[in-house]
Structures are given as structure tokens and as C-alpha cells.
Write a structure and sequence with these properties.
Layout (H helix, E strand, L loop, with lengths): L11 E5 L10 H20 L4 E6 L6 H9 L3 H18 L6 E3 L3 H16 L4 E10 L4 E2 L5 E4 L6 E3 L1 E2 L6 E2 L5 E5 L7 E12 L4 H11 L5 H11 L5 E3 L1 E2 L16 E2 L5 H15 L18 E7 L3 H14 L9 E5 L2 E3 L14 H7 L2 H10 L7 E3 L1 H31 L9 E2 L4 H16 L6 H22 L4 H22 L4 H10 L15 E2 L13 H4 L10
Parallel strand pairs: 1-2, 1-15, 2-3, 15-16, 17-18
Antiparallel strand pairs: 4-5, 4-11, 6-7, 6-10, 8-9, 11-12, 13-14, 19-20
């Protein structure tokens, strides 16, 4: 597929950072990278671009171990159950991931091919490091197994990365460390040899890469990269002496496992391939889509708390493959999404599961509100009361008034509320109005100015405008009414096209009721005649008995 409107025709690979399979997804999870990546992918398809949106479960994280212990299950059992829950939640939210890949043999071979290639190219180093250690269990405590205070910002943190400031935490860097598996356990330190990836060796390449992106990427990401590149970059652990994870393949580190974060890039490559296979394609290798010769546009959607990994470590890994792979064109980051102005906490029951939300409100309503309140540049907040009030007053009521008035117009000009009858004329100025509307929406969906909240505002603005125009049209004489009806139905059709990446079910319903394929191009609406059509209404509530999904609280963290 190639672009139909002069836009970049390169294939696009969209990656939603693989969620840890230690439970289901709450709305704080989906409001960040996953809804945004879905909207962007749907937009690309509406402009004729060839896109694969992929993700997959992150089974190897040590957070799986601590979650399984708290829930009284085993890590393998938890990952299997969580993978199915997450996949179901994506489907319930209308997040159309082309491939939500399982951790199968092809996944594992892709990971091993990736790390072995770097090993054979001499990109890793063997280092002696000091790690937290449990004297009682005789095991090392890393990443999600160890808590403490961040040495950079002093916030409560876990090993590896601080989710508050985004800075990496050295192997023994946590202040006042404690074991998440047993807070009463004494934590000491022991030295051990592990394999590391020396990030400092890629300083010059990383600095140039981020300098080239600074003018178009989000400010918080840019400022964090400047902070991190202003000081020596750490050695990044490739292996850990822990039991959970994929066994490390290197002879120098027997009995160790791969650091789960190392799976990020090969996992994403496999997820892209899995997505292609789901669409009936058969790429020659599981990393083929990412090979430099195909010149794909690579886009990551990730939370701010993981940027050290995605914007430095993973980029350096791709560079270390010496031209084999494309580098990311854009890393689109989000901030935290809160619940009633407090951080989501599954352990305290302060949470709204995404699947529970769409069991009570139509997913178009949920998606619209998550777009309107998207945490793009600062923390934002979910509130059920605000959802009801804001979406009801700004979207549902005005849209339904527009739909009702258009049905009256259709009946007036054709004798049929469904719009059967002769084509309706369109005045010459209407396509220019539609072109202006499409241009504004496209500005919200293009990556250099991507904004879900502004797109949602545009939906509100144009719904109110067309509602007012439709109500005025009812007062006009028959001949003038036919012209006004033609303009209104064509503009409404264009608005539904522009809304289609967000309000997926409304667009699908229009498509089912007639000849409608969302194509976000002005020339698609440069016509002299149009027809009336049934404009579906919106509801603020759905019958829970008809759409209920089993609650997931007992199986999540």
C-alpha cells in the first residue's frame, strides 16, 4: 500500500512498549502508549500508509516474580493468565494491535539471534559488579526484586530505573535497600561477574542522534536525554545471576539469565513479524521488517519512566548492530495518568480496570475521554464523575442533536430519514471547508505535533458547529434546504472520517450502513453531489449485562 495524498510512502512500524504480564491493564496503562499508538496507526491507514502496530507480553520481568508471590501463584501461571487478559483488554478497548505476540519458540530464537550477534561483534564486556543480596535465601536482588530510595531524586524506587525521575540506578545505587519478596529480610551486597553493554562507548552517536531529534520530540524526553548525556553513561547489565528469565547463552556467565529489558528490541522485532503474519504475509526472517534496506519508519510509544531504556539503551543496541537495523524516527512519550488525583495503586485497590470501564460505558465514550485527558506533557487525571459530565455535555448530547436534526433534514429533502432519493448538491465552497477541517485534524495526528487532547477538542468544536448549522438549515425553503443538506451531510461524513481513529465504533457503524471508507484526504470530499445517510447516535452508558467482561482484580497486581 502506498500513500494516496503525497505523504511519506515508507512502511511504518509502530511499537507499543510490551506490557509486563503480571496482571491485566488498568486505564492508567492504556491511556498512555496503547490508545495513542492505536489512534496513530488508524490515522496512518486513513491516509493510505502501510502500518504494522505490534506489541507483546513482557514475561521475563522480575516484577512477575514478586506479583506471583503476592498473589499466591507461580510466575509461569501468572504470565499465561496475564497475556490472555491483556490481549482481551486490548480488544475490549478497540486497540487494534496487528500482532500481540506470544512468548513462543520464534520469539525466543529472535532474542537469542539478536544478543548472540552483538556478542559475536564484541559489543559486550564482562564486569565485576556489586549487587544487593539476600543472606536468608542466598539469592541476588535486582530490578523488581529490590526497593529503596533513588539516589538522584530520593523518591521510592526499584532497581534499574527510577520511574519518578527517569534516571538509571547503578547496581548497588539504591539508598536503604529492602527486599520486595520479604521486607524483613536483611539485604547485604556481594560481588559477581555479569555481562554488560558499555553505553559510554556510544556517547558520540547517541548525542548526535538526540541533537537531531530535539526540535521535534516532546520536551520532557529531550530534557531527560540532556541530563543523562551530561554525565558518564553506565554499563548496562545484559545478564543477571537470577533464576527468572531466559537463560543467558554466554559461556562466561553460566547459570545466569538475560536481563528482561534486553529482550525489548528483539521482542519488538518479533512482534512486528507476528503482526505481518497475522495479516497473511510471510517475511523471510523475524527481524526482516526492521532491516535497514527496507527503510521503515520506526515509532515507539512508551511511558516517560522507561525512556532511559527505550531512548538510550535500545537505540545504542541498534547502533551496535552496525547498520543492520533502522533507528527510531520518533519516540512518543507520555506522563502518568492518575485516578481521582492520586497514583493508581492495585495493591491498595485504587484502580479502574480498562475492561471494567468499557463494560459500563461504550468504548467510544471511554476512548474519547482518554483522548481528551491524555497525559501528553504532564500528569492528568481520570474521574468517572468528570467523564459523565464532560463527555455528556460536550460530545454525546450535541452529537445526538446533530444526528436527530440531520435525520429531519433527510426526511425533508427526500421523504426518507435514511436519505433515499436523488443526490444532494454541494456548493463549491464546501470542499474548502472540509479541507481546512481535515488539515487541523491531521495536525493533531502527525507525530511532530501529535496531540490526542487537541483532536478530541476538535471533535467537540466541529460537532457544535455542524449542530448549529443543521438547526438553522431547518428554517430554510425547500430548494435552499437541499443545498444546505448536501453541505451538512458531506461535512458530517468528513467529520466522522476525522473522528474515526478515536470513535472507532461510530465509524464502523456508518461503514456498515452504507458506502463509507474513512480516507483522510481532502480530495475524497471534492465532489459536486453527495447523499444523505443515517448518522448513528452516541450513548453515555451501555447495558452492563450485554457487554460485561469478567472483572480482573483478583488476577492482577
Amino acid at each position: 500500500m502506498t500513500a494516496t495524498d503525497g505523504s511519506d510512502g515508507r512502511p511504518v512500524l509502530v511499537i507499543g512498549g510490551p506490557p509486563t504480564t503480571n496482571g491485566d491493564l488498568h486505564i492508567g496503562h492504556v491511556a498512555g502508549p496503547y490508545v495513542a499508538a492505536d489512534v496513530y496507526s488508524r490515522y496512518l491507514r486513513a491516509t493510505g500508509r502501510d502500518v504494522v502496530y505490534a506489541s507483546g507480553g513482557d514475561d521475563s520481568q522480575t516484577y512477575v516474580v514478586t506479583s506471583a508471590a503476592r498473589l499466591g501463584t507461580t510466575p509461569p501461571e501468572l504470565t499465561v493468565k496475564s497475556w490472555a487478559l491483556i490481549k482481551g483488554t486490548f480488544e475490549a478497548m478497540g486497540i487494534a494491535v496487528d500482532g500481540f505476540a506470544p512468548t513462543d519458540d520464534d520469539y525466543r530464537s529472535t532474542v537469542y539471534n539478536y544478543v548472540n550477534r552483538l556478542y559475536e561483534l564484541g559489543k559486550f564486556r564482562l564486569r565485576t559488579v556489586r549487587l544487593p543480596y539476600s543472606e536468608r535465601t542466598g539469592t541476588f536482588l535486582v530490578e523488581g526484586l529490590i526497593g529503596g530510595d533513588c539516589p538522584t531524586c530520593l523518591a521510592d524506587s526499584r532497581g534499574g530505573i527510577c520511574e519518578t525521575c527517569g534516571h538509571p540506578i547503578d547496581f548497588d545505587g539504591l539508598l536503604d535497600p529492602w527486599s520486595l519478596l520479604d521486607p524483613s529480610d536483611e539485604v547485604t551486597y556481594r560481588e559477581t561477574e555479569i555481562m554488560v553493554f558499555p553505553l559510554e562507548e556510544y556517547r558520540e552517536q547517541l548525542t548526535a542522534f538526540h541533537a537531531a531529534k530535539a526540535s521535534t520530540w516532546r520536551p520532557h524526553l529531550v530534557s531527560l536525554m540532556r541530563e543523562l548525556l551530561a554525565k558518564p553513561l553506565p554499563d548496562y547489565p545484559i545478564t543477571y545471576p537470577v533464576a527468572w528469565g531466559l537463560p543467558a547463552p554466554f559461556p562466561e556467565t553460566p547459570g545466569q539469565t538475560l536481563n528482561a529489558w534486553v529482550e525489548g528490541m528483539p521482542a519488538s522485532m518479533y512482534c512486528s513479524t507476528y503482526g505481518q503474519r497475522q495479516r497473511g504475509l510471510q517475511p523471510p526472517s523475524t527481524d526482516d521488517a526492521w532491516r535497514a534496506e527496507h527503510d521503515a519508519e520506526l515509532v515507539f510509544f512508551v511511558g516517560f519512566d522507561n525512556l532511559f531504556i527505550w531512548a538510550l539503551v535500545h537505540v545504542a543496541e541498534l547502533m551496535a548492530h552496525e547498520g543492520r537495523y533502522v533507528l527510531p524516527d520518533t519516540i512518543l512519550t507520555n506522563e502518568f495518568y492518575e485516578l481521582d488525583n492520586e497514583k493508581f495503586s492495585t495493591s491498595k485497590g485504587h484502580v479502574v480496570w480498562a475492561r471494567d470501564l468499557v463494560a459500563e460505558v461504550p468504548r467510544d465514550v471511554a476512548r474519547f475521554y482518554l483522548n481528551l485527558t491524555a497525559p501528553e506533557h504532564a500528569r492528568t487525571n481520570f474521574s468517572q464523575a468528570v467523564l459523565d459530565k464532560v463527555v455528556g455535555e460536550r460530545l454525546v448530547e450535541p452529537w445526538n442533536e446533530l444526528a436527530t436534526t440531520l435525520a429531519k433534514l433527510a426526511a425533508e429533502v427526500s421523504g426518507d430519514a435514511a436519505g433515499a432519493g436523488a443526490p444532494l448538491p454541494v456548493v463549491p465552497g464546501t470542499p474548502a471547508r472540509i479541507a481546512a477541517m481535515i488539515s487541523r485534524f491531521r495536525g493533531c495526528f502527525e507525530l511532530d505535533s501529535f496531540s490526542l487532547s487537541r483532536a478530541a477538542d476538535l471533535v467537540v468544536q466541529h460537532t457544535a458547529r455542524l449542530r448549529a448549522d443543521a438547526q438553522r438549515a431547518l428554517t430554510e425553503e425547500h430548494d435552499a434546504l437541499r443545498v444546505r443538506a448536501g453541505d451538512l451531510f458531506l461535512q458530517t461524513r468528513a467529520l466522522i472520517t476525522c473522528m474515526s481513529p478515536v470513535l472507532v465504533d461510530l465509524a464502523a457503524q456508518v461503514a456498515q450502513n452504507g458506502d463509507f471508507e474513512p480516507r483522510m484526504s481532502a480530495d475524497a470530499f471534492d465532489v459536486a453531489h453527495t447523499t444523505a445517510f443515517v448518522v448513528p447516535g452516541l450513548s453515555l452508558r451501555t447495558a452492563a449485562a450485554d457487554h460485561a467482561v469478567p472483572p480482573a482484580a483478583t488476577t492482577t497486581v
